[in-house]
Structure formats: C-alpha cells, structure tokens
Write a structure and sequence with these properties.
371 residues, alpha+beta, Phosphoribosyl-aminoimidazole Synthetase, Chain A, domain 2, 4-stranded mixed β-sheet, globular
Length: 371
C-alpha cells in the first residue's frame, strides 16, 4: 500500500516567504534613498541595473570591484541587540578597499544570511547598509536575504557585500610609484573598525554566549557600563562604533590636487598596519612608521584599542599586526607635496598626521623604535 504523502509547506520547513516579502517592502524606501542618476528601475527584479553612460567621458575607465564581510563583530551586535550600524561596517570594508586604487564606488549589493527573517530586524540591518552607501556615494542596487533554518539559530545572521567602482587609468593609484623619501600621512579611525574581533571577543569573555540567555544578558549589562579608561564610554559603544568611510573626502582631494600627487593609499584592515601598509609599497621600498620605544605613536589612538591590547597582553608588534592603531587610511606622497596634500585634506574636513616615511628596502613595514 502506498502511503499518503504528508503535507509539508515551505513555511513548515522554517522559511517564511511572506515575512520575506514584508522585509523587502520595509527596505524599499531606504534603498531608493541611495540612488544615483545612473540607477535604472528599483529593487525587485532579477538584477540591479546601472547605466555606464557616466564612463564615456573617461579616457580609459577601469572598473574595480571589492567584496568583504563584517566578520565576528556581528557576534557583539547580536549579543548587545544593536544592529543599526553593522551595515555601515559592511559598506566601509568594501568601498575603502577600492578607494585605495583611487576608484569611486558606483554601486553596492549586500547578502544577508539569517536563521529566521523578521521584517523589523532586516530593516535595522539594511538601514545601516543604506547609510553607508550614502556616505560613500554608492547606489544600493540590490541584494539577497537568505533564510537558513536548521543551519543558523533564528537570531543569528551573517553579512557580505560587493561593490563596483571606476577610475580613469591615468588617475589610478599604483604602489609602483612610491619612492624612497616619500611621506606617509594618516587619517584617523573611529576605533577598532571591523577587524580583530575574534581576539576582542576572547579578551572580553563573550565567546560561546548565546544571545538572550541569562549569562549573555549579564555580560551585556557589564559591557553597557561606562568605563573611565574609555573616557566614560561603555565597551559596547566603543566596540560597535562603525567603521569610517573615507570615500568622499579622499575623492574630493584626489580631484583637487594634481594627478600623481598621491602615490598610493593603504586601507588598514585585518593584519593591522604591518600587513596592510606594505600593500601600498613598491617592491624596493620600506615604510618606517614613527613608533616610540614604549610602543606609543605621535598621533592620538582611540582608547578602546589600547584597552584591548593591554587586556590581551599584546606586544607593540603584535598590536600593530592586529589593529589599525588609530589610523584607518594612509596616503603616500612625495615630501615636496606633503604641505599641499595636508592642506587639501584639511579643506575636505580631515585632520591628517604624519605616520612615517619611506626608505630603500624590500616592500616591508618597519618601526622606528626597532631600527
């Protein structure tokens, strides 16, 4: 005898397509607020449409793409039930990367994997993405919300993003242009940004905690307490400060100064200063970073970085290989252009500072206190 098949719907399997539809409706206005003139149509189709007409005035337009995620900073966002700014982190990690080539971000797409979709929750996350896109001048042309029941906890989620930008080849930045004697200028970070959080989580004792449990709620209350060492901020505020997006001020400066003034740019992400500044160096050049014998720098560093480094017992070299040390972006120029570049950056609202200089070498980052 054949058995009557049991009636099982997609919703019975844990996927709520109706709630997914409500989530899309909730974010439509946010997505539209990021539109540029080149955007064609809106979200809801099978692909995001973007006119390439703006590229026709360029001599040799080069498309540059970048993709990244937020990483385990999301564990803190979930523990603290704060989801409004991690979307900006996502955008920043992608657009700051392509900015290193001198590219203007044109459009952005996101991918959100979550255990169970709730429209209100999705709206908080996507608002952060939209805010980041507006800060970068990029259009949010589409994305994906994927419900993963049985794979992720209902309140667990992960983010990934993808951006495409453009730069005219004659204006493209190239580390090969960096020469001995060049000056390295830094732009400040807002804190730890979006790298090093696996270490952070271990140091502050949140590994293995499940949001909503009594243990997690007790830790959450602890992290919300203001700390004198952080200038009265809580660890929750300091650790979830969103990653800075440097696109608009830096592109303004690149348009203002003569082509070739900025030789290269480094986005200081995972691997800290040590493993990112070297990516902006020519093969026969070293960067000498101005670090004192006690491991301090000539610029101000967000207190949360020194707090975590101290709690972890990191040596200066370990800290510089993990965190941005207060510098989110570095620009390299010839010494005779330092004053003009500094002036242009200040006119764009930045407060640049000297990070170090370039010397003959082999493409490495070294520190002044170790030479």
């Amino acid at each position: 005898m054949s058995e009557t098949p049991k009636h099982v719907t997609y919703e019975d399997a844990g996927v709520d397509t109706a709630e997914g539809g409500r989530a899309v409706d909730a974010i439509k206005q946010m997505v539209a607020s990021t539109n540029r003139p080149e955007v064609i149509g809106g979200i809801g189709g099978f692909g995001g449409l973007f006119s390439a007409a703006a590229l026709k005035d360029m001599e040799d337009p080069i498309l540059i793409s970048g993709t990244d995620g937020v990483g385990t900073k999301l564990v803190l966002a979930q523990l603290l039930d704060r989801h409004e700014t991690v979307g900006q982190d996502l955008v920043a990690m992608c657009v700051n990367d392509i900015l290193a080539s001198g590219a203007e971000p044109l459009f952005f797409l996101d991918y959100i994997a979550i255990g169970h979709i709730e429209a209100e929750h999705m709206a908080k996350i996507v608002k952060g993405v939209a805010d980041g896109c507006k800060l970068a001048g990029a259009a949010l042309v589409g994305g994906e919300m994927a419900e993963h029941p049985g794979v992720m906890r209902p309140d667990d989620y992960d983010l990934a993003g993808f951006t495409v930008g453009v730069v005219d080849r004659p204006k493209m930045l190239d580390p090969a242009n960096v020469r001995p004697g060049d000056v390295i200028l830094g732009l400040s970070s807002t804190g730890i940004h979006s790298n090093g959080y696996s270490l952070v989580r271990k140091v502050i004792g949140v590994d293995g905690l499940i949001p909503g449990t009594p243990e997690a709620e007790a830790k959450r209350a602890e992290l919300e307490q203001p700390l004198e060492e952080l200038g009265g901020k809580s660890l929750a505020d300091a650790l979830l400060a969103p990653t800075r997006i440097y696109v608009k001020p830096v592109l303004e400066v690149l348009d203002r100064v003569p082509a070739g003034t900025v030789h290269a740019i480094a986005h200081i992400t995972g691997g800290g200063i040590t493993e990112n500044l070297n990516r902006a160096l020519a093969a026969d050049v070293d960067a000498v970073v101005d670090r004192a014998a006690d491991g301090t720098f000539t610029w101000d560093m967000p207190p949360v970085i020194s707090y975590i480094a101290r709690k972890a017992g990191l040596t200066p070299n370990e800290a510089c290989k993990t965190f941005n040390m207060g510098v989110g972006l570095m620009l390299i120029c010839a010494p005779e252009d330092e004053a003009a570049l500094t002036e242009a950056l200040e006119a764009a609202g930045e407060h640049p500072f000297r990070v170090g200089t370039c010397v003959e070498g082999s493409g490495q980052v070294v520190y002044a206190d170790e030479r």
